[in-house]
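Hi support team,

I'm filing this because I wasn't sure whether my run with KG4 finished correctly. The job status page said complete, but I'd like someone to confirm that the output block is well-formed before I use it downstream. Pasting the exact inputs I used:
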Amino acid sequence: MVLGIETSCDDTGVAVLGFDGKVLSSLLSSQIKDHAAFGGVVPELASRKHQEAIIPLVRAAFSDAGIDDPAGETGLVAVTAGPGLMGSLLVGVMTAKGLAQAWECPIIGVNHIEGHIFANRIAHEGLDPPFLCLVVSGGHTEVILVRDWGNYELVGKTRDDAAGECYDKVAKILGLSYPGGPEVDRLAREGDPAAFDLPVPMSGTREVEFSFSGLKTAVLWAVSRIRDEKKEVPVADLCAAFQKATVASLLGKVCLASELTGIKRVCISGGVSANSALREAFRDRFRENVYIPPMDLCTDNAAMIAAAGLERFLRFGPSGLDMTPDPSASIA
Ligand code: KG4
Ligand code: ZN
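And here is everything the job wrote out:
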């Protein structure tokens, strides 16, 4: 068995995977309600909550997988080593080290972004490199060329905010609850995207790069103008216009990446890939060449970390017990 542990941000994830790649259990302890009052993730609180959740979740994951003897049956511990919040990463890495040492099995540190790429491998058995993967979440907006499993090239990324971060900030401006992505997604379906003319970020360049801070400011200005005029803010229309511009930017840059690299097969992954308009736009544009994970594999989870760790272990061998988390680790 492979034990997977994910604690890079605000979700504690533990999964058990067979060495054949089959997911036997995957559990998540969400901290959303702990951070909601602050409108975003509070790092110190996140690490404390991971600490409380992690050991009971490890026990529950083995029990769900029907394994009575974790010490005897675990052949590898895979853990997210970065990027992420240092305090959060440390809880996962130190737990993984303790278990690997006690159970006398190897440990492997996994890049969180590589994990998101592997969410698609779990979901789509026949998926083989090369392909492009858009990893789009609360912390990341990156296009990665997957030449082979374990062999990556960063094609482009955001200059400032991640798309999910922008969703969350726009939701906050509009008075919606945290995390804002699902709420903006839902309201956008009821709104008129043509009611506001928001800019599609970076649409004029031939570079694969994103920028979402200007779009966020455009929403902020639109809202403060309407409030100054003492009018009611048309929240659904603003959500629809914002979502249209965001999806156009993400789709446009992945199309450009496909054109520049000559790679036709495309995956999306990360929390924002749960967005209904983004999924529809990618399906329309790339048809049989697009791979999209089911919702539970889009957001952070430990099954994707276990899958990425297993492949890395089989190809390159284990990490040492002296491995340390790297909050700003990059994939390539
Ligand atoms: O991958 P994830 O669980 O954690 C990070 O690694 O960041 O992504 C969380 C992000 C949040 O910003 C959340 O608002 C966004 O994904 N998100 C969505 C949707 N569901 C989650 N954004 C847009 N539409 C959604 N349906
Ligand atoms: Zn993530």
